[in-house]
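Schema walk-through. Below, the input block comes first and the output block second. Nothing else is stored per chain. Lengths vary across the set, and this one has 476 residues.
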Amino acid sequence: MHIASNIIGGQLRAGSRQRDSHNPATGAVMGRFPQSDAIEVAAAVAAARQAQPAWAALSLVQRREYLNRVADAIAANAERLATLVTQEQGRPLGGVGPDQVPGSRFELWGCEAWTRATASLELAPEVVFEDETRRDELHRKPYGVIAAIAPWNWPLMISIWQVIPALYAGNTVVLKPSEYTSVCGLELARVVADALPPGVLNTVSGDGSVGAMLVEDGDVNKIMFTGSGATGARIVAAAARNLTPTTMELGGNDAAIVLDDADPKAIAPGLFWGAFLNMGQTCACAKRLYVPDALHDQIVDELKAIIAALPMGDGLQPGIAMGPVQNPMQLKKVVALVESAREEGGTIVCGGVLPDGPGNFYPLTLVTGLRDGARLVDEEQFGPVLPIIRYSDLEQAIANANRLDVGLGASVWSSDSQRAAQVATRLQAGTVWVNQHGMVHPMVPFGGNKRSGWGVEFGQEGLKGVTQPQVISLKK
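--- output ---
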């Protein structure tokens, strides 16, 4: 069993209370982590506040050197951290590359790659106006202390997405991992913090009450959150009381539209992983698949064949491709949505039955025969279930894809990429992929619209998002 600690001001803090963390594949306790109290939250913010001026005073080149040391430390600890992710989050170890399952090792590779990519960016002043009388430069300054609240679905990679740009821009950070994945989250933070000056990265851990204390702290200068819309609304309300800026990534219910000229066999693997990556527990997974009548049955058959070939089980065992749902709360939601689909006339093509035995396992499930308005279509399932909706009119399919109040991602699938790109421009989502889904990149801005949040992460625009603009206006 792994015992995790917080790190505050460069010192490990075990805390006065401990919580158990469970392996979702077995139900067994895999580790323990602290339940932070108000004193520890205040201490973490104070440590970040104290360390921030010296950290911001370093040059961008110096901070780049630190972050490359962080990337080296992640790489050196990758297998150990990947094993903790599998034990706590449930994703199989897997590997990297087109012939391997994108599992926990893939997540650690992503942590290293995102760190190095972010550290390669520049943040030079921009001349925004100049004439014979004046010169105006736009500089980018750090906010100060950033509170980063990470989710349980990609507990390490999303932490890196929040933490690394913030640090690179000269901020210090207090990170709170999800209570469902705190052991691996805190262990990653320790590895990162050990490569940095004391107090630059600090952590707190525990349930939602700890997150509430963190975002309500008046010494926090910006909040970054990835998670549910309901929790996001509470964070925004708390932030408003202190006028604290936020970046919010609140998930979505991504639509994928297959056009009538697509090749079902060719696109089936991309559709499958677009929907079922990480057991569908990814904000930007395809969660509604719109298919023309003429291709419906063939696409269903192709997806069903892929599902039949992928073994499910404890991800520490060899040969396992798919793991459990991460927590009982999410499993209960998935089961309820599938049952509602049955009641609303849906056909369960495969899966759809909660298995006996330990762990939070649920089979990969395809559902046909539903229309827009069904719960499984309208509500984000965030699990291994995909509704496949027939359409005969592309205009109606586009309207249905846009009808919900969320808009994180979407995709269009076609043998004619230009035609697909034209459809893509009409979809209301922060990112629309063509012939792929969920393919984020460290240099490409990513964020949602409507109730999927605001602000972007990644690349130059994401780096600007953790800075404040300052204009220096020079009279000649």
